[in-house]
Design brief:
Distance between the termini: 39 Å
Organism: Petrocella atlantisensis
Order of helices and strands: EHEEEEEEEEHHHHHH
InterPro entries: Cell_Envelope_Struct_Comp, SLH_dom
Radius of gyration: 20 Å
Keywords: Repeat
Structural class: alpha+beta
Number of strands: 9
Pfam family, one: SLH
Shape: globular
Helix content: 25-40%
Protein name: SLH domain-containing protein
Length: 308
């Protein structure tokens, strides 16, 4: 290992590419707050007698921070999220925390890959939650591009396995259009609307299929199933809960299936998931879109990947 040198490169991009990216952001109704930059981590052998090309490290096992100092002209309240540009001419959310230091504002972007990044202002108001308890979380996640179809968002409807996978993958900043992934499921088409997210979620072991080789994308999810998936997502963010006795607050915890008990305890301990009230966890009930969104935000906040 003493012969391996790791270089971190943050470089400005060609003006034509920057202009193209800024136009893309504008076309999507958002505003670019930081000129796009390229981030790359590479390793090379420093031994004189060894001739080896530099190798790019494109995927990390932990989130790697990129801290961007925001221009003085930027209103800190308008910093929505960092984005990563995809090879297909699109962009996706990456978890971003905004903070102030010595009178300056910064955006801390957390990502598991190399790529090209920027920061945007993208306020979204979801009409269906105007008078709903989930309003703040839903509007936040929609603005961060996690909720992919905010106009059709139905807060109290039971979420499907496919949409759940999409929310999780987008929230964690794993979604990359144009990326290739193995399809292990007999009922998932190559070009389906949720196929990419499902395959990425499966690759990171957040969601799994059934013994018959199916994924069942349209099936609804029980709350205990969801908590199991959130616990797997906690492994990606390296989140460990400290409130280990919290599960005892729920008088129906005994209804949790044996296979899910440890996962439910861990998710509750991390305050990622809440009960339907202060004493009921409702493990067998279906998870709603609003509940899924709130838990996704809790996961990011508790993992210190975004602001509260």
């Amino acid at each position: 290992m003493e012969d391996i040198k790791v270089d971190v490169k943050i470089t400005k991009m060609d003006e034509m590419i920057v202009e193209k990216y800024n136009e893309l952001i504008k076309e999507n109704g958002a505003e670019s707050l930081f000129s796009p930059v390229s981030f790359e981590v590479a390793a090379k052998n420093t031994k004189i007698k060894v001739i080896r090309e530099e190798i790019e490290i494109s995927k990390f096992s932990n989130y790697v921070e990129r801290v961007m100092e925001m221009p003085k002209s930027v209103d800190s309240s308008k910093i929505t999220t960092g984005i990563v540009f995809n090879s297909e001419g699109t962009y996706s959310h990456v978890p971003t925390e905004v903070f102030q230091k010595e009178g300056k504002w910064f955006a801390r972007i957390n990502s598991l890959t190399n790529s090209e990044y920027s920061v945007i202002w993208n306020p979204v108001t979801v009409k269906s939650v105007e008078d709903h308890w989930s309003k703040d979380a839903v509007n936040d996640m929609a603005s961060r591009l996690v909720i992919f179809d905010p106009e059709a968002f139905t807060p109290d409807k039971a979420i499907t396995r496919a949409d759940f996978a999409e929310y999780i993958v987008r929230a964690l900043g794993l979604y990359r259009e144009g990326s290739a992934h193995e399809n292990k499921f007999s009922d998932i088409s190559t070009n389906g609307n949720r196929t990419l997210a499902i395959l990425i979620a499966n690759e990171y072991k957040i969601v799994e299929g059934y013994p018959d080789g199916t994924f069942r994308p349209d099936a609804r999810i029980t709350r205990e199933e969801a908590m199991t998936m959130y616990q797997r997502a906690m492994k990606v963010t390296k989140l460990v809960g400290s409130d280990s006795n919290r599960y005892q607050s729920y008088k129906d915890f005994g209804e949790v299936s044996t296979w899910a008990e440890s996962n439910v305890k861990e998710v509750l301990a991390a305050h990622v998931f809440n009960g339907t009230n202060t004493t009921i966890i409702s493990p067998k009930s279906n998870l709603t879109y609003a509940e899924a969104t709130q838990a996704v935000k809790n996961l990011l906040v508790e993992s210190k990947l975004i602001n509260k």
